[in-house]
Predict the structure of Probable Fe(2+)-trafficking protein.
Amino acid sequence: MSRIVYCEFLKKEAEGLDFQLYPGELGARIFNSISKEAWGLWQKKQTMLINENRLNMMDANARAFLEEQMQAFLFEGKEITVEGYTPPQD
């Protein structure tokens, strides 16, 4: 049976993550209050940020930047904009 959490991102109850995907206190907060759906949306943004900014994930500054963006996106409702990226038009 899946876990149900109140997703802070979607502002509704939704299926929670199966396990903590991120370390530490922030990881626990994500596990307890971010849904699978919201995490999937973040992962798409994260991939775009890494690719467009050519981030080296071995670099502590790059990881810190991504963590800031993740918190802003998941918990503060901030839209992540990627320089040079234009979303496809419908």
About this structure: The longest strand covers residues 4-7. Strands lie at 4-7, 12-15. Helices lie at 24-33, 36-52, 60-75.
